[in-house]
Amino acid sequence: MAEPAAEVAAVANRDEPAQAASNSTCPWCGDHLSTAVWQGASGNGFRLRRCDTCRLAHTAPQLSAEMIAPYYAPAYYGSGNVRFNKLFEMLVGWFRLRRARRLQQLHPVPGAVLDIGCGRGHFLRALRQQGWTCSGTELTDTAAVHARETLGLDIHIGPFDGGQFAACSYDAIYLWHVLEHIPNTYRALVEARRMVRPGGLLVIAVPNLASWQARVSHYHWFHLDLPRHYIHCSTPWLTGALKDLGFRIVEVNHFSAEQNIYGWIQSLLNCTGLKFNLLYDILRRPSARETRQPWLSHPAQSLLSVLLAFVLLPFATLAMLMEAAFGVGGTIEVYAELPNP
Question: What pTM, to 2 d.p., does this model score?
Answer without folding.
Answer: 0.89
